[in-house]
Amino acid sequence: GQQAPAPATDASTPLPTASIPADPAQAVLQASQRFAALRSFHAQMTLHGAQKGQVVSTSMDFVAPDRYRLRGAAGVQTIIGNTVFLASEGGTQQLPLPAGVLEQWRTPPPPAAELQGLAVEDRGPADVGGTATRLYRVDGPQGSGETLQYWIGDDGLPRQVQRDGFNGDQPYRVTLRYSQLNDPDLRIAVP
E strands along 34-74, which residues? Predict the structure, then answer.
């Protein structure tokens, strides 16, 4: 039978249901491509293991084509095009930003080449903050100890991406949780 669409969990415009490929690798690739086409999103990044026992949290807002706002321990940074606006006690400083620095935030991994020959597994239904998703796991190259996990919603978009690996012999985990996908109320103004 037909199921009614789940109510939106935030103020964003409801996203259409997508047909998600049965092939797990294609489902992950298409989710990354759909994500790259978003006009706006909010991301919450948590890094465990930067140093022993340390947890670092950063949030980021993105509004197409080139506006970012990062909030972390160092305060708020607004980036518009290739200019970083740093708020400080004496006002706002403007600094140049090398091109391409923020591209990693725009598209969650992996590029298609990264998936070649890797095992991608459909782990079934999972819940992310009240949103129904399907969990996919990608095992990194043999012996790397690295895994990527994707929680993909009914609209074919990632709601969460988690990377586990090692920096030297130190384990780490990076988790990115996404919300406010294509939210027209998400705006980033020049500070």
Answer: 40-48, 55-63, 67-72
